[in-house]
Amino acid sequence: MTTENKRMRTPLKKARYLGSAKEGADHFWKQRVTAVANLVLTGFLVWLVVSLIGADYATVKATIGRPLVALPLILLAVSAAIHMRLGMQVIIEDYVHGEGKKIVYLMLNTFFAILVGASIVFAVLKLSFGA
Amino acid sequence: MAEAKSTRGARIERPLSPHLQIYSPLINMTMSILHRITGAALYFGSLLLAWWLVAAASGPGYFAFVNDIMGSLLGRLVLLGFTWALINHALGGIRHFIWDTGRGFDLKTIDLLSWGTALLGIATTLAIWAFTGQLGILVAKATALFH
Predict the structure, then answer these.
(1) Which of A10, A81, B134, B143 has the greatest number of beta carbons closer than 10 A?
(2) ipTM of predicted complex
(3) Taking CB atoms and an 8 Å cutoff, what residues of chain A touch B57?
Protein backbone atom coordinates (compact mmCIF):
# COMPACT_ATOMS: atom_id res chain seq x y z
CA MET A 1 0.00 0.00 0.00
CA THR A 2 1.33 3.46 -0.86
CA THR A 3 1.32 6.42 1.50
CA GLU A 4 -1.15 8.11 -0.82
CA ASN A 5 -3.74 5.43 -0.03
CA LYS A 6 -3.06 5.57 3.72
CA ARG A 7 -3.95 9.26 3.74
CA MET A 8 -7.22 8.35 2.04
CA ARG A 9 -6.48 10.82 -0.72
CA THR A 10 -7.65 10.08 -4.19
CA PRO A 11 -6.28 11.61 -7.39
CA LEU A 12 -9.63 13.37 -7.80
CA LYS A 13 -8.15 16.85 -7.26
CA LYS A 14 -5.74 16.17 -10.10
CA ALA A 15 -8.58 15.05 -12.31
CA ARG A 16 -10.60 18.16 -11.48
CA TYR A 17 -7.56 20.42 -11.88
CA LEU A 18 -9.22 23.24 -9.94
CA GLY A 19 -6.56 24.09 -7.36
CA SER A 20 -7.11 25.63 -3.93
CA ALA A 21 -9.31 28.44 -5.24
CA LYS A 22 -11.68 25.82 -6.73
CA GLU A 23 -11.89 27.57 -10.07
CA GLY A 24 -8.73 26.46 -11.85
CA ALA A 25 -7.89 28.45 -14.97
CA ASP A 26 -11.51 29.55 -15.37
CA HIS A 27 -10.84 33.29 -14.94
CA PHE A 28 -7.79 33.21 -17.22
CA TRP A 29 -9.59 31.25 -19.90
CA LYS A 30 -12.77 33.37 -19.94
CA GLN A 31 -10.58 36.49 -20.16
CA ARG A 32 -8.82 35.05 -23.22
CA VAL A 33 -11.97 33.78 -24.98
CA THR A 34 -13.76 37.12 -24.57
CA ALA A 35 -10.56 38.91 -25.62
CA VAL A 36 -10.55 37.07 -28.95
CA ALA A 37 -14.24 37.82 -29.44
CA ASN A 38 -13.68 41.48 -28.52
CA LEU A 39 -10.86 41.83 -31.07
CA VAL A 40 -13.25 40.92 -33.88
CA LEU A 41 -16.32 42.68 -32.46
CA THR A 42 -14.62 45.98 -31.58
CA GLY A 43 -13.18 46.01 -35.09
CA PHE A 44 -16.78 45.84 -36.25
CA LEU A 45 -17.77 48.59 -33.76
CA VAL A 46 -15.09 50.95 -35.05
CA TRP A 47 -16.28 50.33 -38.61
CA LEU A 48 -19.91 50.94 -37.56
CA VAL A 49 -19.18 54.18 -35.71
CA VAL A 50 -17.04 55.47 -38.59
CA SER A 51 -19.77 54.66 -41.12
CA LEU A 52 -22.34 56.53 -38.98
CA ILE A 53 -20.33 59.76 -38.66
CA GLY A 54 -22.55 62.65 -39.69
CA ALA A 55 -25.55 60.37 -40.27
CA ASP A 56 -29.02 61.68 -39.35
CA TYR A 57 -31.25 60.04 -36.73
CA ALA A 58 -33.29 57.96 -39.19
CA THR A 59 -30.14 56.48 -40.74
CA VAL A 60 -28.63 55.66 -37.32
CA LYS A 61 -31.85 53.98 -36.19
CA ALA A 62 -32.27 52.01 -39.41
CA THR A 63 -28.62 50.92 -39.50
CA ILE A 64 -28.42 49.71 -35.90
CA GLY A 65 -31.75 47.92 -36.32
CA ARG A 66 -30.41 45.83 -39.20
CA PRO A 67 -29.94 42.19 -38.09
CA LEU A 68 -26.34 41.97 -39.24
CA VAL A 69 -25.51 45.12 -37.26
CA ALA A 70 -27.67 44.47 -34.20
CA LEU A 71 -26.43 40.92 -33.72
CA PRO A 72 -22.69 41.69 -33.47
CA LEU A 73 -23.50 44.68 -31.23
CA ILE A 74 -25.38 42.41 -28.82
CA LEU A 75 -22.57 39.85 -28.93
CA LEU A 76 -20.09 42.65 -28.17
CA ALA A 77 -22.18 43.85 -25.23
CA VAL A 78 -22.13 40.38 -23.67
CA SER A 79 -18.49 39.60 -24.42
CA ALA A 80 -17.25 43.05 -23.32
CA ALA A 81 -19.31 42.96 -20.11
CA ILE A 82 -17.76 39.62 -19.10
CA HIS A 83 -14.26 40.76 -20.13
CA MET A 84 -14.37 44.07 -18.28
CA ARG A 85 -15.85 42.49 -15.17
CA LEU A 86 -12.97 40.00 -15.03
CA GLY A 87 -10.40 42.72 -15.67
CA MET A 88 -11.75 45.08 -13.03
CA GLN A 89 -12.01 42.16 -10.58
CA VAL A 90 -8.23 41.70 -10.81
CA ILE A 91 -7.62 45.43 -10.33
CA ILE A 92 -9.84 45.43 -7.22
CA GLU A 93 -8.16 42.32 -5.82
CA ASP A 94 -4.77 43.96 -6.36
CA TYR A 95 -5.47 47.36 -4.83
CA VAL A 96 -8.36 47.01 -2.34
CA HIS A 97 -7.09 45.37 0.81
CA GLY A 98 -9.91 45.48 3.39
CA GLU A 99 -11.94 42.29 3.12
CA GLY A 100 -15.34 43.98 3.59
CA LYS A 101 -14.47 46.82 1.24
CA LYS A 102 -13.24 44.34 -1.35
CA ILE A 103 -16.51 42.38 -1.29
CA VAL A 104 -18.50 45.60 -1.77
CA TYR A 105 -16.33 46.69 -4.72
CA LEU A 106 -16.48 43.24 -6.33
CA MET A 107 -20.26 43.32 -6.05
CA LEU A 108 -20.47 46.84 -7.52
CA ASN A 109 -18.17 45.64 -10.32
CA THR A 110 -20.62 42.87 -11.24
CA PHE A 111 -23.58 45.28 -11.10
CA PHE A 112 -21.78 47.81 -13.30
CA ALA A 113 -20.79 45.24 -15.95
CA ILE A 114 -24.34 43.85 -16.12
CA LEU A 115 -25.83 47.36 -16.21
CA VAL A 116 -23.67 48.42 -19.16
CA GLY A 117 -24.19 45.13 -20.99
CA ALA A 118 -27.95 45.07 -20.45
CA SER A 119 -28.31 48.76 -21.43
CA ILE A 120 -26.62 48.13 -24.77
CA VAL A 121 -28.63 44.97 -25.44
CA PHE A 122 -31.89 46.70 -24.54
CA ALA A 123 -31.12 49.78 -26.67
CA VAL A 124 -30.19 47.66 -29.69
CA LEU A 125 -33.30 45.50 -29.31
CA LYS A 126 -35.49 48.60 -29.04
CA LEU A 127 -33.89 50.06 -32.17
CA SER A 128 -34.52 46.71 -33.89
CA PHE A 129 -38.08 45.96 -32.82
CA GLY A 130 -39.36 49.21 -31.27
CA ALA A 131 -41.55 51.71 -33.01
CA MET B 1 4.85 43.14 12.97
CA ALA B 2 7.83 41.37 14.47
CA GLU B 3 11.17 42.96 13.71
CA ALA B 4 14.37 41.03 13.39
CA LYS B 5 16.89 42.35 15.91
CA SER B 6 20.45 41.48 16.75
CA THR B 7 21.24 40.23 20.25
CA ARG B 8 21.99 43.81 21.42
CA GLY B 9 18.60 45.04 20.26
CA ALA B 10 19.86 47.04 17.26
CA ARG B 11 17.93 46.60 14.02
CA ILE B 12 19.66 44.49 11.45
CA GLU B 13 20.33 46.30 8.21
CA ARG B 14 18.82 44.09 5.56
CA PRO B 15 19.02 44.71 1.85
CA LEU B 16 15.61 45.88 0.64
CA SER B 17 14.09 44.72 -2.58
CA PRO B 18 14.02 47.66 -4.99
CA HIS B 19 10.50 48.89 -5.71
CA LEU B 20 8.95 50.90 -8.55
CA GLN B 21 10.55 54.23 -7.62
CA ILE B 22 14.02 52.70 -7.77
CA TYR B 23 13.92 51.31 -11.30
CA SER B 24 14.26 53.70 -14.20
CA PRO B 25 11.15 53.28 -16.35
CA LEU B 26 11.46 50.74 -19.15
CA ILE B 27 9.14 50.45 -22.13
CA ASN B 28 7.71 47.08 -21.08
CA MET B 29 6.85 48.46 -17.59
CA THR B 30 5.21 51.47 -19.18
CA MET B 31 3.16 49.43 -21.65
CA SER B 32 2.21 46.97 -18.91
CA ILE B 33 0.68 49.61 -16.65
CA LEU B 34 -0.82 51.37 -19.69
CA HIS B 35 -2.60 48.12 -20.55
CA ARG B 36 -4.23 48.16 -17.13
CA ILE B 37 -4.96 51.90 -17.24
CA THR B 38 -6.51 51.73 -20.72
CA GLY B 39 -8.51 48.69 -19.60
CA ALA B 40 -9.90 50.62 -16.64
CA ALA B 41 -10.58 53.63 -18.88
CA LEU B 42 -12.49 51.44 -21.34
CA TYR B 43 -14.45 49.99 -18.41
CA PHE B 44 -15.89 53.42 -17.69
CA GLY B 45 -15.76 54.44 -21.36
CA SER B 46 -18.22 51.64 -22.13
CA LEU B 47 -20.78 53.93 -20.49
CA LEU B 48 -20.34 56.29 -23.46
CA LEU B 49 -21.32 53.57 -25.94
CA ALA B 50 -24.24 52.52 -23.75
CA TRP B 51 -25.33 56.17 -23.37
CA TRP B 52 -25.14 56.80 -27.12
CA LEU B 53 -27.17 53.68 -27.96
CA VAL B 54 -29.74 54.33 -25.23
CA ALA B 55 -30.03 57.89 -26.56
CA ALA B 56 -30.68 56.54 -30.05
CA ALA B 57 -33.31 54.21 -28.60
CA SER B 58 -34.90 57.13 -26.70
CA GLY B 59 -35.76 59.21 -29.74
CA PRO B 60 -34.47 61.97 -32.04
CA GLY B 61 -34.56 64.76 -29.44
CA TYR B 62 -32.41 63.10 -26.82
CA PHE B 63 -30.15 61.58 -29.51
CA ALA B 64 -29.43 65.06 -30.88
CA PHE B 65 -28.68 66.28 -27.35
CA VAL B 66 -26.14 63.49 -26.73
CA ASN B 67 -24.66 63.86 -30.21
CA ASP B 68 -24.08 67.57 -29.53
CA ILE B 69 -22.21 66.77 -26.31
CA MET B 70 -20.08 64.13 -28.02
CA GLY B 71 -19.49 66.44 -30.97
CA SER B 72 -18.21 69.29 -28.78
CA LEU B 73 -14.49 69.92 -28.43
CA LEU B 74 -14.37 68.21 -25.03
CA GLY B 75 -16.52 65.33 -26.29
CA ARG B 76 -14.25 64.83 -29.28
CA LEU B 77 -11.14 64.87 -27.08
CA VAL B 78 -12.69 62.19 -24.88
CA LEU B 79 -13.60 60.13 -27.96
CA LEU B 80 -10.05 60.50 -29.31
CA GLY B 81 -8.78 59.17 -25.98
CA PHE B 82 -11.39 56.40 -26.11
CA THR B 83 -10.20 55.38 -29.60
CA TRP B 84 -6.58 55.31 -28.49
CA ALA B 85 -7.39 53.37 -25.28
CA LEU B 86 -9.35 50.80 -27.31
CA ILE B 87 -6.63 50.27 -29.90
CA ASN B 88 -3.76 50.35 -27.40
CA HIS B 89 -5.57 47.80 -25.22
CA ALA B 90 -6.38 45.60 -28.23
CA LEU B 91 -2.75 45.64 -29.37
CA GLY B 92 -1.61 44.98 -25.80
CA GLY B 93 -3.97 42.01 -25.79
CA ILE B 94 -2.37 40.65 -28.97
CA ARG B 95 1.05 41.10 -27.28
CA HIS B 96 -0.21 39.05 -24.35
CA PHE B 97 -1.53 36.36 -26.73
CA ILE B 98 1.98 36.04 -28.16
CA TRP B 99 3.41 35.74 -24.65
CA ASP B 100 0.66 33.23 -23.76
CA THR B 101 2.17 30.84 -26.30
CA GLY B 102 5.46 31.01 -24.40
CA ARG B 103 7.19 32.93 -27.18
CA GLY B 104 8.84 36.34 -27.20
CA PHE B 105 10.31 36.47 -23.70
CA ASP B 106 13.85 37.43 -24.69
CA LEU B 107 14.69 41.07 -23.91
CA LYS B 108 14.97 42.09 -27.55
CA THR B 109 11.50 40.76 -28.44
CA ILE B 110 9.96 42.20 -25.26
CA ASP B 111 11.24 45.65 -26.22
CA LEU B 112 10.14 45.19 -29.83
CA LEU B 113 6.61 44.11 -28.87
CA SER B 114 6.29 46.91 -26.31
CA TRP B 115 7.48 49.64 -28.65
CA GLY B 116 5.37 48.11 -31.42
CA THR B 117 2.26 48.37 -29.24
CA ALA B 118 3.05 51.96 -28.26
CA LEU B 119 3.77 53.27 -31.75
CA LEU B 120 1.18 51.23 -33.66
CA GLY B 121 -1.47 52.28 -31.11
CA ILE B 122 -0.84 55.98 -31.68
CA ALA B 123 -0.41 55.57 -35.46
CA THR B 124 -3.63 53.56 -35.90
CA THR B 125 -5.62 56.02 -33.77
CA LEU B 126 -4.39 59.01 -35.77
CA ALA B 127 -4.94 57.12 -39.05
CA ILE B 128 -8.59 56.39 -38.20
CA TRP B 129 -9.23 59.99 -37.14
CA ALA B 130 -7.39 61.44 -40.15
CA PHE B 131 -8.99 59.03 -42.63
CA THR B 132 -12.50 59.95 -41.45
CA GLY B 133 -11.74 63.68 -41.46
CA GLN B 134 -12.34 63.89 -37.70
CA LEU B 135 -8.76 64.86 -36.88
CA GLY B 136 -9.08 67.97 -39.05
CA ILE B 137 -12.37 68.93 -37.39
CA LEU B 138 -10.83 68.45 -33.93
CA VAL B 139 -7.83 70.61 -34.79
CA ALA B 140 -10.10 73.27 -36.30
CA LYS B 141 -12.29 73.32 -33.18
CA ALA B 142 -9.24 73.51 -30.92
CA THR B 143 -7.57 76.33 -32.88
CA ALA B 144 -10.89 78.23 -33.03
CA LEU B 145 -10.57 78.63 -29.25
CA PHE B 146 -7.61 80.93 -29.74
CA HIS B 147 -9.17 83.23 -32.35
Answers:
(1) A81
(2) 0.88
(3) 122-124, 126-127, 130
Domains of chain B: 27-144 (1.20.1300.10)
Q: ∠A25-B47-A70 over CA atoms, to 5°?
A: 80
pTM metric for this prediction: 0.87
Contact of A32 with chain B, judged by CB distance below 8 Å, is answered with yes
Closest CB from A53, A84, A123 relative to B54: A123
pLDDT score recorded for residue B1: 46
One of 1.10.3470, 2.60.40, 1.10.1760, 1.20.1300 is the CATH number of A32-129, namely 1.20.1300
In this complex, do A87 and B53 lie within 8 Å of one another by their Cβ atoms?
A: no
Instruction: Report the C-alpha gap between A92 and A112 in whole angstroms.
Output: 14
For residue B115, give the nearest of B23, B4, B27 by alpha carbon. B27
